[in-house]
Design brief:
heterodimer; A: mainly beta; four-stranded antiparallel beta sheet; globular; B: mainly beta
């Protein structure tokens, strides 16, 4: 399975945009990029996913590099409730084992009031 | 409300005893998963099931067992063979199937402590 690399931690001021990077240099052509976040003592929740084009939803935006070897999750205006661990994972829906979700250690985001 | 339910939220077990963690979903999902999370760590896959009556070992299956007799249920048994069972256990489900690129839905977790 292709791996992802994320910074261990990041800080952001409240109400400012946050850019969370993810490197995935060994991504395959059929891998989708998924982002999840985990609040303390809770299960992860889905944030967004994409293949090639940038994606937007009510929670965040996903910017994917043209060569797809990196991506950035963008929180447009950080709130205290966005403090969480953010996981970037790759998932190949065409693989027989693609239904597995492999999580790394993620990026712990601290939001400063 | 559709969702995935884990019970209990906190569980204490005496060393040497088996314990079963419950996971139920009413999302009509085919695929279900069990993960273990240790403090400050990411999630590690224990077992997954893509369909009823079928399941596969994940990366850390030793000392654990599962069953998938019903679509809605995927219980995890932590056996006495698991040397370090104290952890946060998370169950998840997804639509499943090759070609299905859908997200996973997680339960709120069970925190197991061996005393």
């Amino acid at each position: 399975d292709a791996k992802t690399t994320q910074p261990n931690s990041m800080e952001s001021n409240e109400e400012e945009p946050v850019h969370l990077p993810c490197n995935h240099s060994t991504i395959s052509g059929t891998d989708y990029i998924h982002w999840y976040r985990q609040l303390p003592s809770q299960g992860p929740e889905y944030v967004i996913h994409g293949l090639t084009s940038n994606v937007n939803n009510r929670m965040a935006s996903l910017a994917i590099a043209e060569d797809r070897k990196s991506s950035t999750l963008i929180l447009h205006r950080a709130t205290l409730r966005d403090a969480a661990v953010y996981y970037c994972i790759l998932r190949d829906p065409l693989s027989n084992t693609g239904n597995q979700f492999y999580f790394g250690t993620g990026t712990s985001l601290t939001v400063i009031p | 409300d559709g969702g995935i339910t884990q019970s209990p939220k906190y569980l204490f077990r005496k060393e040497g005893q088996n314990v079963t963690l419950s996971c139920e979903q009413n999302l009509n999902h085919d695929a279900m998963y069990w993960y273990r999370q240790d403090p400050g760590q990411g999630l590690r896959l224990i077992y997954y099931s893509q369909i009823v009556n079928d399941f596969q070992k994940g990366d850390i299956a030793e000392g654990y067992s599962v069953s998938r007799e019903k679509k809605e249920s995927f219980p995890l048994t932590v056996t006495s063979a698991q040397k370090n069972p104290t952890a946060f256990y998370l169950c998840a489900s997804s639509v499943g199937g090759v070609g299905m690129n859908t997200e996973a839905f997680f339960g709120q977790g069970t925190r197991l402590t061996v005393v």
